[in-house]
Amino acid sequence: MDLTDRVNVMDGDPTVTVMIPTKDSQETILDCIKSVLSIDYPPEKLEILVLDASSPPLTLHKNFKDRVAVFNGDYSAPAAYNSVLPLVKGEIVALIDSDAIADRAWLRQLLKGFTDQQVGAVGGHIKTWNSQNPLARSIGYELEGRYLRMPNQILRISTSNLAIRKEILVRLGGFDETLQTGYDAKLGLDVNRLGYMVAFNPAAVVYHHHRPSLGRFFHQQRAYALHDVTLYLKGFPIRSDNVTSPWMLAELVGWLLAAALGLATLMTALVWNAFAAPAAFSFFSAITFLVASLILRGLRTAVAQRDPVVLVFYPVMLATRVVAWVVGGFEGLIRLARGTHGA
User: Fold this and answer.
1) pLDDT tens digit sequence for 201-260
2) Domain boundaries in the chain?
3) Strand 68-72 relative to strand 46-52: parallel, antiparallel, unpaired?
4) Residue 18 forms beta bridges with which residues?
5) Residue 78 pLDDT more than 50?
6) What is the DSSP string of 113-170?
7) Topology of domain 3-211, per CATH?
């Protein structure tokens, strides 16, 4: 049965604790808090905790102080979650990023998934907040396409939009603090290994403020790749991943192979003063195919969304992600070899 069709058989509204980690996100955090305060849920059943690692520390308007508790500390997001877990009052812990805003029905829709006692966590859909920015729109089109293809039962999902039973989070010992990113993926895997399901309800919506510039997008994706090295070595089953699609990985491998062919052609010319025609032909063929793929995907998205501007921004966004993953992945391997990956 689809989650949106289930009847809520819970004994009344459960108590819910919403955690919002933030670090130097002054441009979005207040709108995020306001959206959570405005959701369709009894205020007396809702606890809101802001976990702040900003410098200088975040200060909230006095109007928020009766409804929102702020915890300041120099910690990563997983460490911040874990630090307040013993204080959490809610039966359900809901997570949203500080650069996202919640739909009014967000929490109600997440809670529908918990009518099944085998469901340990429920995730929802992510749409675009700053859609006036063409790069952010392009990021959103690609992300929303992957999310809308998710089945009802999934392996993991982002903590941008996730709710989990507190008792399960406690049993798991909280989040893996050795991961600066990817801790949400590890959490999903741990929930499944514990014998519970992670459900997906596309009707539970948050609007995410995607990176508005290529530099910030590159930095984000590089960080993901850097820490994914540790995530995969911890046994995360990449073949079963519902967020990172097989095509995304195949695309990455294709660019790496093309780079290897280009390097082989260059080394042959420099070292042996010869032209390696087969390697050169293979290199240019691979590059042509990969670039054509980017352009065609941009064209398809521009037509489907009736948004001609993304014809340029969408392929550039995809290419930036590949470069960031390569750089971050190699950096992660180097750190791992030096024994400094957790530093």
Assistant:
1) 999 999 999 999 999 999 999 999 999 999 998 889 988 899 988 888 888 899 998 888
2) 3-211, 246-338
3) parallel
4) 48, 94
5) yes
6) GGGSTTEEEEEEEEEES-TTSHHHHHHHHHHHHHHHT--SEES---TTEEEEEHHHHH
7) Spore Coat Polysaccharide Biosynthesis Protein SpsA; Chain A (3.90.550)
